[in-house]
## 1
Amino acid sequence: MEHNEFINDFPILNEEMNGHRFVYLDSAATSLTPECVLEKMNEYYRHYGVNVHRGVYAFGAKADAEFEAVRDQVQCFIHAGSREEIVFTRGTTTAINQVAFGYVLPKLQPGDEIVTSMSEHHANFVPWQVIAQRSGATLRFAPLDQSGAVTAEALRSVMSEKTRFVALNHMSNVMSALNDVQALSQVAHEFGAEILIDGAQAIPHLRVDVQAIDCDFYAFSGHKMFGPTGVGVLYGKLICLQAMEPFEYGGAMIDQVCQVSTTYKDAPYRFETGTPMIAEVIGLGAAIRYVESLGYEYIQTRIEMLRAYAMEQLAQMPHVHVYNPHNYESATIAFNIVDVHSHDAVTVYDLEGVAIRAGHLCAQPMLSELEQGSLLRMSLQVYNTKADIDRFIAATKKASDFLDVLFL
Amino acid sequence: MPRHKGLVDDASYVTVHLKNPSCGDDMRVQTKIEADVITDIHHDGSGCSICCASASMMAELVKGEHIEQAQAKKKAFYQMVSGQGIDEELLADAISLQGVAKLPPRIKCATLGWKAFEQTLSVDTVEYDEGVTRIDE
């Protein structure tokens, strides 16, 4: 078998699942976590695991320094204008909800419009639906092209002087179509609207430059880019963050509390309530270092090669229908096996030790566009190998005979 | 061939519609109860093969049975799919689904039709299940 040079970074790849070497093809759901991230988090808990922003002793200062250093790191990583523009959140979902409820909802009037698309993850769909309902605003949907992307022209077709806010993904989680977010931001701004980009699927695969994109907000999660779960980032232009209301109150965000009123810290601290996810933020810093040590170019080249290798073989299988065959830059293949329900198919993969995703992929609007109730998604990351693809293809062949597998 | 598939438009039947939001399995079960006997049963829905096959076998097993006997069969089925023994006498053809016990993520597929059936009998006695959504019609 081919040697996997990532085995030392990801010893979980030595595990067995259902009696077979574990093949992980669900990185779009969450990536595996490298040793360097685990070690960095362990180091915090084992050697200086105290609270931040409070301690007047040396370990507190050490925790503060490690925690705040990650803010600088994120600033560089996504090329934000200042460190104050980086808010740590529990993840992309929390970041988007913070913007929806703390920034957009307070400004909405009945008759205003919010624009999103049918290719969004539920996390970038439902919050807008809810605030539209609460305010009497209307939710509009930018049409998708064949690849599942929103083009600048498509966005323009649903914009008007009533549009207050635009929320679109950088890369969608079903079709993995890449949106030209720079062009989309420009269109939003032409109409006087602001724009949030959901970067959860993009950040593991391509370099993000928020100033070049010129978006007003950008959200992503740590756990899809080799970081721990429970931590994410909300980037917001400083002027936007300063105008945003907190979504939660209490803890680290407090400036001064009196009996009748309270003042809050400035952005970004105003949005970081309670005791933050200290180990996770520190782990995110290690994950960013890991991505940078590999380089996006290397990650992209390797994934593109593996995807092409898989597609070549799937194309020979008439009972496999692929929904995003030409999204070459994507790390996913969205497909179904004709006449086999995705949950039946995924059981066959499971029994073969191959982890892929089945179901609605938290994107029911997109599935309704595809006129599918559920589908299968395999997604790649840098630690996958051709041997993984071979196992995936072998399981795909078996999956068409699902009933034989179950009722043996 | 699925048996008892397709619903009837008849107010003397009780209909329960359940959905598993995590996978999209969607099942309606209708029963007609006379003197504590399930005199008729229908099901309709969409989902994976385990869900659909199980609903069909469930209908076959409980039609014509007294509620108590049907509940006993339900209990036997739950025991089988959770690996706690197989009662061939009670479960008849449904023992073909015993393999589900080895597939924990799929137990909820096999039991969706049974859950809907149970809810047609009496809503009050049904245990809350966070994995399933009941849709009011």
Note: DSSP finds 14 helices and 17 strands in chain A.
## 2
Amino acid sequence: MRYTLSLIAVLAFIWLANSGLYTPLLLTFGLLSIALVILLARRMQLVDRESQPLHLAAALPGYYWWLLCKIVQSNLQVVACVWRSVFSPSESVISPTHARLRTSLRTDLGKVLYANSITLTPGTVAVAIEGDEVLVHALDADGIEELRRGDMERRVRVLEE
Amino acid sequence: MIEQIVLLLSGCALALGCFFMLSGAVGLLRFPDFYTRMHAAGVTDTLATFLILGGLMLLAGWSLALFKLGLILLFLFFTGPVASHALARAAQHSEWKLSGSGSRGGKRGPAEPVSAPAEVAEADALNTDRV
């Protein structure tokens, strides 16, 4: 029930923020669309803990903030690589690597969150998840090393619990 | 006074965003193979869009446009990794498949197709047959 309610709230927010016209007719249309989407989502059994991770609501902002700092940092590294490869074409500035990383994350949600975070930081891409291994491709060995140290995984595990 | 500071900040954010967009595009052209190019595209996906949309949000002020820009940012951050993953996944099913055990390559690493010349020759042969 609370998942349905939260989905209604999210959809209503999206409608109100995008329409900008608050006449009774359009608000009725909005209400009808929301009802239709809720009906469809419930019939497809999409409304559950996984699609509406309410239990994460308190912890997610902190994680997103940490992730944003990480993204900025790795963006700067990749951009530095780009310009170094432009200005000194002869020396090899990147050494692409890939590795399978074991992860101790148990839930699907945790694994997806982890893999998506890896992909979202430039310089590392999660190519596939197989069982409890993540195949990661990185621009240089440092990216893999940093993931091996498991800072990101630890933070995702905190969210998982 | 405050208005000018906001204007200045948004100008800086937009200029920086353009710089990162350009860097991502240059990387996309300069990097040697499929996977490394994907990393360069990641720059335009994340920090560049964040800065440009942030600059526009500062210009928009407290209005409906602010929420819309915020929603665009949110959706881009959710769909970006999905698109990257779909690309990488597709590459896994092609000749650029990464070898099973983790290995380390040089500048032209294992992501480069090993049997490419042979395949090209084969394709050429097929084409001449058809002609």
Note: Helices of chain B lie at 2-30, 34-60, 64-92, 116-130.
